[in-house]
Amino acid sequence: MQEAAHTAGFETTPCNACGASTDTELFAATDHLSHEQFRVVRCSACGLAFVNPRPIAERIERYYPEMYYGKRHPLFPGLMMRLRVRKLPRLAGSPRLLDVGCGHGDFILACQRVGWTVAGVEQEHSPIMRMKRELGVEVYAPAQLRTLPSASFDAVTFWHVLEHLPDPAETLAQIRRLLKPGGVLLVEVPNFGGWEGRVGGPAWFHLDVPRHLYDFDRGSLEFVLRRQGFATIRWETFSLEYGAFGFAQTVLNRICRHPNHLFQLLIRRGHPHARSLRDTVISVAAFPVLLAAGLLASVVAAGFGAGGVLRVWARKPADLSSSSGVR
Known about the structure:
Layout: E1 5-7, E2 10-12, E3 23-30, E4 37-43, E5 49-51, E6 54-55, H1 57-60, H2 77-86, E7 96-100, H3 106-113, E8 117-121, H4 128-135, E9 138-140, E10 153-159, H5 168-178, E11 179-190, H6 195-200, E12 214-215, H7 218-227, E13 231-236, H8 243-255, H9 261-267, H10 277-303, E14 309-315
């Protein structure tokens, strides 16, 4: 793969999926936190969409201020984590799970309660790194993945994390090493190829430049997974957690002066636009109607494979009679 070209805190990179260096600009999008603009492009060879140029590794942390983490989940966090747990494969005994990008740890704690042996991966400056001893869970920094023994886990999950990673292909290669033969990988990302992503464009709630470095559709995500040696098993695009809300916030982004205003209020970030009375009134008044419309739209879109998220189960190839498979 070609090397990235660096310019004043930013780098122009080749496609992470296929290594091609030619791309086509789709649009420019504004970061709702820093107000900087970023160019979203599509690889001319494989179709993967990504931010290019992007902040270099030493600069990217400034786009993740403390307030970015907000509170744990905007709507019904306990219910949403239980729904995630139900998506896991049914494995015998006390299987080991690694959750990459574990946030505040809600998901791994929910898994622990139903019998999984759990561990997480998160950035060194994230809140859970200060709380992991109190919570009684193992949490590793990303660089520590290389130090873990091979075939350590029965399942690995990425819940809206793969799009944040500077090198998802390399990370997936590490995950393949860490999975046991027949182990299961579960990835969920925003669906750039869904109806919401296509219509939303620069106003799409899930765009979140430059933290979301990559915007996957089904074709590009399957290409990345297969290239890293995974066999895809099953796909879904409906999300009760993000589908209806993503639709509502995307529409509000077209109406309000400040993007993601309602989301900021719900997760209680100390955002500079939190006191925008106009946006607050519009968001609160329109939200119930938009949420209902979004639920209907997400159900219909998912029926055509075009819902707001991409959720895929994949397996590290092994003897299909292995008990580590999805059942």
